[in-house]
Every structure is written in C-alpha cells, then in structure tokens.
Amino acid sequence: xxxxxxxxxxxxxxxxxxxxxxxxxxxxxxxxxxxxxxxxxxxxxxxxxxxxxxxxxxxxxxxxxxxxxxxxxxxxxxxxxxxxxxxxxxxxxxxxxxxxxxxxxxxxxxxxxxxxxxxxxxxxxxxxxxxxxxxxxxxxxxxxxxxxxxxxxxxxxxxxxxxxxxxxxxxxxxxxxxxxxxxxxxxxxxxxxxxxxxxxxxxxxxxxxxxxxxxxxxxxxxxxxxxxxxxxxxxxxxxxxxxxxxxxxxxxxxxxxxxxxxxxxxxxxxxxxxxxxxxxxxxxxxxxxxxxxxxxxxxxxxxxxxxxxxxxxxxxxxxxxxxxxxxxxxxxxxxxxxxxxxxxxxxxxxxxxxxxxxxxxxxxxxxxxxxxxxxxxxxxxxxxxxxxxxxxxxxxxxxxxxxxxxxxxxxxxxxxxxxxxxxxxxxxxxxxxxxxxxxxxxxxxxxxxxxxxxxxxxxxxxxxxxxxxxxxxxxxxxxxxxxxxxxxxxxxxxxxxxxxxxxxxxxxxxxxxxxxxxxxxxxxxxxxxxxxxxxxxxxxxxxxxxxxxxxx
Amino acid sequence: xxxxxxxxxxxxxxxxxxxxxxxxxxxxxxxxxxxxxxxxxxxxxxxxxxxxxxxxxxxxxxxxxxxxxxxxxxxxxxxxxxxxxxxxxxxxxxxxxxxxxxxxxxxxxxxxxxxxxxxxxxxxxxxxxxxxxxxxxxxxxxxxxxxxxxxxxxxxxxxxxxxxxxxxxxxxxxxxxxxxxxxxxxxxxxxxxxxxxx
Lengths: 552, 198
Description:
Strand content of chain A: 15-25%
Number of helices of chain B: 7
Distance between the termini of chain A: 79 Å
Number of strands of chain B: 7
Strand order of the largest sheet of chain B: 1-2-5-4-3-7
Distance between the termini of chain B: 18 Å
CATH class of the largest domain in chain A: Alpha Beta
Number of helices of chain A: 23
Number of strands of chain A: 23
Strand content of chain B: 25-35%
Oligomer: heterodimer
Largest interface: A-B, 16 and 20 residues
Largest sheet of chain A: 12 strands, mixed
Helix content of chain B: 25-40%
CATH architecture of the largest domain in chain A: 3-Layer(aba) Sandwich
Strand order of the largest sheet of chain A: 9-8-23-22-21-10-20-19-11-18-14-15
Helix content of chain A: 25-40%
Structural class of chain B: alpha+beta
Shape of chain B: globular
Largest sheet of chain B: 6 strands, antiparallel, barrel
CATH topology of the largest domain in chain A: Rossmann fold
C-alpha cells in the first residue's frame, strides 16, 4: 500500500496539479523520455529543472530535465507543416501530431516506506505522470542550511530554495572547480573556502596565483570585494607572501613572508619544472646525482660563478657530460630571478605553515608578481605541498599508532591544476598521489582549472565533487564528466549555463546534480560570515579607547 | 436548428451498422448530409443514433418519360416533385445509442425495427452526444463512403449546436482528435482540418 501521507510529506501533494506530461520511454542509463502535455508551453521549460515522477507502485522519482525536443507522430510533418498563416491548423497539430519531448535523467527515488531518497536503481513505469518539482521538493532533497551545510546558490527559477553543499563530504575527497576564464571560478572558490573556514571543517592551503583569495580583489566592474583574510579577521586565515612588495602595495595584511633557502630545494622539487625549464630527460636524470655529490648546497654551487673543483672533477672523470652540466647551469639561472629563493639553509617556513594549518588556520600563499611565472608557481606549490604532505603522513601514522592526534583535515587549493596533474606527470607527483589516496592522510585537493581535459583521467575520476561553470570545449566537458554515470545527459545542461554566476554541481557533496545560480559574494555574504563592513565601528572603538586612555 | 418533435421519416432497412430512412416529399425540412438523428430500438428501451450521409431519390418510369418530354408544364413539374409517392431515401451510419439518459458511442446492440420513426436529434442532445468524440473512429472505420466530408459536416453541425463562444474551442478539440486518428496521412489531415475551420 502506498503511504500517501508520508510521500506527500516528503515531496508535497499533487492534487489537482496538471502534470508536465508522462513517461513514454527511456532507460536508466540513457534517461527517460517524457511526452509533454499539449496544454503546456514547451517554451516555459528549461534544462536543469527538476521533475518529480509518480511511479505506479507508489515509488516517487526525482529527476533532472537534461534536454528538450520537438517531435511529431508523423515524421513527414517537417516536410509538410501547416500553412504559416493557418493558426487553426497550427493549434490543431500542436494538440496531437506535434508535441514536445523532455529527456529526464532520473536521480533519486523514494519508496513509500522510506523517509530519505536513495540513488536511483530503476525507472518509473510507462505513462507515469511527471510533475514539475516544487520549491519544497527541491528543498527537502538538499536539506537545510546548518553548520555543516553551505548554502551555495539557488536552483534556476527557484530563488527561495537553497542548495546546500555538505561540507564534510566536500572536504572528504578531492574536489574541483572548473569553468572557462571569466565564468566566476575564483568567486565560487572563495565562497566554498569561506564556508569551509567558517564551519571549521578543515584548514585550507591556498596557492593564490593571481592574488584572488587573501586580500581585496577588484571585480570586473571595478567594485572591490573582500578577501578571506578580511572576512576572517580573527586569525582563522593567515596570508603568507612570496612577494612582500606587491602584497604591501596592495594593502594586504601579511602574516609571514616566505623565503625558501636554496639548500631546501631537492631534485624532486625541480623535476616538475623540467618541461618549463626545458630540462631534457638526461639533464633531469642527472639532478639526483648532482645533489648527492654536491650536498645540500648543490644549487648554490651550480649557480656559483667561481670555479668548483668537484664539478670539474666530475666532468674529467666522465661522471657527467660537460654539455649536460652546462645546460643545467644555464637553465638553473631561472632560480636567480626568483627573489623568494635565498642562498643558504632558509628558515622554518614549512614548519610554521604546517603548525598554522594544524592549529586550524588556513593559509593563503600570495605569489605577487611571481604569479605570472608558471614555473615559480609550480616550484613553490610542489615544494610546500610535498613537505606539508610528508608531515601529514607522519602525523597520521603516529595517530594510527596512538602517539598523536589525527592532523586536522587539509584542503590544498591549486590553480592551473592541469599543469600539476598532466597525464605525463600526475603518476609521480605529490598532487597525483593526494588525489588518488582520497582522505587517507586527511589531505585533499581543491583544483581550480579552466582546462580539465588536461588533467589525468585517473585523477579526474577520483574527484569527488565537481563544481562546474560554463565550459564549451567538448574535450573539457567530457573530462568533467569522466567517471560519472549517466553523464551524457548532463552535457547539454553544462553547455547551456550562463557565462556568469551559474554552475553545475555534481558528486559526493550533493544528493544529485544541480544547476545553481551561485549566491552573491556581497555584503549579505560578509554578514553571514560575521564580517561586516565595520570601518565605522572601528573608528568608534578607537575613539572610546582614546577617551579611556587620555580622557575626553 | 428545429425541434425533434416531428419525425423526418421511417426506417425502411437496417442493421447494427446503420439504417435507411425514407420520407415522402414534400417534407419542409427534409434532412441534410451530416445530420444527427435517432430511431427507437429494443422496443423503446434504446435509441440508435445515426449520422445521415447519403440522400437519394429513386427514379420511376413516369419520371423517365417526363424527363424526355420536350416541354413540361408547371403543373406536371409540381405534380412530379411534390405529389409522387416515390420517397426521398437517406442512409444513416450508426454512431452510438442512447440508453435512458446515457449516450454510448459504439455500435448499438440491436438495430431499429422497420418503419420505426426517425427523429432529428435536438441541439441539446447533439451537444450532449458530441461532448465525447469516440464516435469519430466509428465514422473513420467505414469504407466506401465520403468519410472526411461526413466528419466535417457532422462536426460543423455539432459546433453549430453550441454557443458561439464555444464553437472554436470545440472544433480545435475535434480536429485534434481527427489528427490523432488520421495523423499518419498528412495530406488527408490537412484537407480535413481545412474543412473544420470555424
């Protein structure tokens, strides 16, 4: 028996409501075909909308409209349409002969006796009525906003409904934010990070290539919006910079300047740069040898202008070819241009950053002017990530052995991720390992990229939650859906997103794929985070302090 | 439309698929193509609903001789057209029956008996009967009669029995049902829809 009241509690009553149409065919893998009721206008529908299908057995199905088509009972109609000025014939034909078809991707189903919907494992029977999902339906599926659920946006045409992302699940596996340039990836990423930091679900290590996250950022319209450091003035976010001058001139509050000692650089840190520096396989292969023979100061010695006996001896002994050594030295000249690299042993920056992360503070690493040098970005991101990851692995192993607490979950944010996760290098870089090992060591990636097709397939298939703004390159669209069942139908949805403030979210952190108009990154958002524009209040506080100290 | 009180003839031949009615000239309002009519059956327990589709007047020896006459006086013409005993015959297709107050749109259980009076269906009954459109498939299924012309005439009759404000909507709905039934033949459908235009 169908428990009407329970079903209606979950998906709302349908009494008297005209269905959109009925299921006339389809399959679980390719989606359902729904014949549109002739009384309804096809023009008011849109891909990305939700529908609720009332199955014959009492089971309800929740689906997503993935395509809309015009069809006819007689295929000759396209060659023999009614006369253009014959409104009567057009009306008659559109009642029976010509009709609209919806492709619906079934997402969730709810049995009469269940109180929570489950992933879909079957399809509704023929002729099951299909209703447009109400705001209440959608709201119930995406749950209420709370400490662990971040309101990320509203479904299309349902401004009152909040789509909430499960933050625990979001940080549990590596995630991705994809989209063409100018589609709002950075804004979306900032919202996600602010949500994670506010909820305290994880620390974030953000490799901020274009200075988008730490301090104030100018929108395309010239309006200035706040960075994470401003939104969390209470110490939850630290800004570490590679380029103190640029950070200061931008007015950014800097908690630390990162200097890397050349003695801290290992051959593995340089290997990822081989393509960008033009190091051949032979030259790259010689680096560990040079490191072993020259000791920790190997880079300083290679860059030194004074003759080095040991290097000359290596050439004489034919341990290394002179031309190879010369090429390495020429290409290492790159390190001289990187002002954040200082000769010598460097300091304890990695330990400091690890400590901050482990104490619950997120770290934004600003690249300043070095953000335009991809090799610098890759060098530093790889350098820091390798070392932070090593410490996480160590700490996690100690936690397993009951010698320490588990390290705090960490999300590492990298931009231009395809440079790190390219199929040629993803197999043996720390980023590839982090993506593959899931949350084994409490470290996951949040990759922000405009060319997901450049990312290794195996890594992409491990991405738990994908937040995707508009993509129009076929290869990129294919890449975003790799490892997602029933993805074919969603392609149409993705290709038709608006260029701004719309995103398709699918994967681990949402019960089903959803197209949202992302929430505004504005004063209301700051208020939600508890970071209002308090300049006036600060002045008042300063005045009160001054009065207390010096009298009126 | 006129009232249904006066009979428009009597049944001369019948089957469950239809019946033939005959009426003596000069009836002032003898039926027209596409008229809905009714004839009693089952000893008055039901009424067969017919749709008139073929009207004919048989000739006889006198008519043939008069037709060959060079000049025909007005008296001879009036005598032949008005006073003759040769009836006007019409065929009606059974498209349903009435049982009590209920109309059923399928073939009747029994045909009317010979000489059963035939009445025109009143406007109210036409509206009631044609509120459903299942009878269209009974008409379309018939061979060797001008089905499309009959459909057009019947549906225009049904529309005319409705208030002006409802006619267009009714014709759209009826034409859509025709489209469902004959949609495979777009040429035929196009012609049918054209003849149903309000």
